[in-house]
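Supplementary Note 2. Why include the ligand at all?

Several targets in our set were suspected to adopt different conformations when bound, so apo predictions alone were not considered sufficient. For every target with a known small-molecule partner we therefore ran a joint prediction. The input for zinc ion is given below.
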Amino acid sequence: MACSPSVRGTEPGCSRESGNSRMTEWLPERRIQCPYCGESISIVVDVSAGSQSYVEDCQVCCEPIEIQVDIEAGNLEDLRADRGI
Ligand SMILES: [Zn+2]
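The joint prediction is reproduced in C-alpha cell form.
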C-alpha cells in the first residue's frame, strides 16, 4: 500500500471568490415587478446601448413585459415595466 504524499497544503486557496465580488458592483442587473403577476424578476440592462425599450417575457407567468430603460451618460436613470400589448 503506497501512500503518496499530498501537496494540498501548498495551494493558494480560494482567492478566486474575493476577486469576483468586484464585478457584481457594476453588473447591470436590475429587479422589476411584473405588471401581470406582480412577481419580482431580474433583468440585465446593457447601459452601454443607451436608452431603449424592449419586450421580455416574465420568468414567472411568461407574459410579455415591455421594458423601458432610460440611460444618461452610462447611468441607469429610470426603469419601467409595462404591459406590452
Ligand atoms: Zn409575471
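The beta strands are 29-33, 40-44, 52-57, 64-72, 75-83. The chain has a mean pLDDT of 81. Comparable summaries for the other entries are listed in the accompanying table.
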